[in-house]
Amino acid sequence: MTANLSGVRCQLRRFGLVARQAEKLVRFYEAAFGGIRTGSGRLDAGQSEKLLGVRGTARYITIRLGSELIDFLQFGRPGRCYPRASAASDVIFQHFAIVVSEMRLALERLCAIPGWTPITRGGPQRLPLSSGGVTAFKFRDPAGHPLELLELPPDNIPLKWREGQGAIFFGIDHSAITVRDTSVSEQFYHGLGFMTSGRSVNQGPEQERLDDVTGAVVEVTALSAAGDGPHIELLCYRGVSRGAPIVCKSNDVAATRLELEFEAPPVIEASTAIKDRAYKLLDPDGHHLIVLNHSSHRGPRDG
């Protein structure tokens, strides 16, 4: 599959998570983060097979977390569970970061809800200024999806988060994906209309505890799109075995999806599409993307 989107404005519109029990997982996100249910529906067998390559129907539930939307997709023919032995340095690893007003309050709320498991060792980690000076904590939801809580430094909080005074959980800041080669992935996402907006190399004991990866040295490349919506971060771990590209089917729980929306119809060659309005793409490491035309967007084509 290839894309030719140079010069086209795009947005990371929403996130897609696969769940074997979507209702149960949605209740966790409502209780733990204050997610608000906004809708539900069903993909018929034709849509599911044409766009996602999965036979049978699927149902979805959508919630809003801050300004961002998350679709929870449950297939009639479920795929594999999330491989819980995977590490943050494996290319299958993909998480999104939830901005919080105060880490202590966020963790208290999370700890009151059962079912999640920690990734970070020793509690939240305050990273050095060279790594952004943020306080972060990584964990897995009850289905195994990795997540991150992120407290930004007081002098570096974007306006969109400052406007959420009184809330504990503000919304989703970015999706971070582990990649094998920064330059290859960066070129791919540039072709989708993203621009490189920041670089850093994160290392040290705090990073090791945050990721639960001994000797972690991480090249972090931020990729931004139009507007003030979530961005993408490429995480390339130096000197750590990251395995082969992901081989995930769309109904596997690890097949997290990013839904990209474009202002103008993109020129795309893709093997999966619905009436030239929705397309499935895989990035160089196998991470799943859904591409939508702005004028045709009516709801979660992929869940």
Binned strand content: 35-45%
CATH architecture of the largest domain: Roll
CATH superfamily of the largest domain, by name, is 2,3-Dihydroxybiphenyl 1,2-Dioxygenase, domain 1
Radius of gyration over all CA atoms, rounded: 18 Å
Structure description:
By secondary structure, this protein is an alpha+beta fold. It folds into 2 domains: 129 residues, 2,3-Dihydroxybiphenyl 1,2-Dioxygenase, domain 1, CATH 3.10.180; 144 residues, 2,3-Dihydroxybiphenyl 1,2-Dioxygenase, domain 1 (Roll). The chain has 6 helices and 19 strands. The strands form 3 sheets. Strands 6, 7, 8, 9, 10, 11, 12, 13 and 14 form a 9-stranded mixed beta sheet that branches. A hairpin with a 5-residue loop joins strand 18 and strand 19. The longest helix has 12 residues. The chain starts with a strand and ends in a 10-residue tail after the last strand.
Features:
single chain; 303 residues; alpha+beta; 2,3-Dihydroxybiphenyl 1,2-Dioxygenase, domain 1; 2 domains; nine-stranded mixed sheet; eight-stranded mixed sheet; 19 strands; 17% helix; globular
